[in-house]
Amino acid sequence: MTGETTHNLRGDYSGMRPDYTVEQAWAAYSPAEHELWRRLCARQAALVPQFACREFIDSLATLDFSAAIPRFDEVNAKLARATGWQIVAVPGLLPDRVFFGHLASRRFPVTVWLRKPEEFDYIVEPDVFHDFFGHVPLLFDPAFADYLQAYGQGGLKADRLGAIEMLSRLYWYTVEFGLIETLAGIRAYGAGILSSGGELPYCVGSGEPNRIRFDLLRIMRTRYKIDTFQETYFVIRDFRELFEATEPDFTPYYEALARFDPVPAGTVLPTDRLAG
Ligand code: PHE
Ligand code: CO
């Protein structure tokens, strides 16, 4: 995900290259970190069959990276064959322009460090578990992979137009917290929920949050909270819907949206269509 700033972040940004990438330094992970990774994977893997979308389940089964923190170069060989994406190791959150530039070139930045054991249930900044477990499986899906690259290109444009806040909401409500309709009911495809032990069952099964049919302009008006479960999720029909809705030039959308007030995270509008 994108970050506003690289100040006061916990990663080590001192030895990075100009594009913010670093070596993964896989040999430096400790046995305790691999053990923590296994526990995180085991908890999520038990939830995935019931709550994740088919594309995520399928990728996870073929990849099977539950035994230890994966080597990025090994997954890159498989990704290159599947969709031409690569993952690159980074110290943590990146400045928006750097992040968008990587996505636009089909490179997904993955944080190298793993959370501490006491952060098993909750972590504020994305770590290697969120970035890898949550995001990498869908990079194997051709339709989603194309959407994410287009998003990166759109990000570079939004940056020039001063519209990053609106476009970041789209990333939040799709790539991080998106839900999708399936024959088995509503399922999760967003990485922020797929990597969360608490929010994955909640977003699909709880009666509390709003689940609203995907609507591009509605999403780009909607605020979000980064430190609680979401109050609202948006539901797509399939990844093609996402790709097609976001294909037009957003320049006139940004101009129109600038005249509206943002919608608070929990609000349901009379024009919303509820999903499920
Ligand atoms: N079509 C968008 C634009 O012109 C780019 C974009 C694509 C944004 C996909 C988000 C997702 O800005
Ligand atoms: Co993320």
Short descriptors:
single chain, 276 residues, alpha/beta, Phenylalanine Hydroxylase, four-stranded mixed sheet, two-stranded parallel sheet, globular, binds phenylalanine, binds cobalt (II) ion
Structural description of this entry:
With 276 residues, this protein is of the alpha/beta class. The chain has one domain: Aromatic amino acid hydroxylase (Phenylalanine Hydroxylase, Orthogonal Bundle). Helix content is 44%, strand content 10%. It is built from twelve helices and six strands. It has helices at residues 31-51, 54-63, 72-82, 96-104, 128-135, 142-161, 164-176, 191-194, 199-205, 216-220, 239-245, 251-257, and strands at residues 86-90, 107-111, 179-182, 185-188, 210-213, 232-236. The strands form two sheets. A four-stranded mixed sheet has the order 4-3-6-5. Strands 1-2 form a two-stranded parallel ribbon. Helix 4 (96-104) links the parallel strand 1 and strand 2. Helix 4 (96-104) packs antiparallel against helix 6 (142-161), helix 6 runs antiparallel to helix 7 and helix 6 (142-161) packs parallel to helix 11. The longest helix has 21 residues, at 31-51. The two termini are 27 Å apart. The model has no long low-confidence stretch (mean pLDDT 95). The chain binds phenylalanine and cobalt (II) ion. Phenylalanine binds at residues 150-151, 153-154, 157, 170, 246-250.
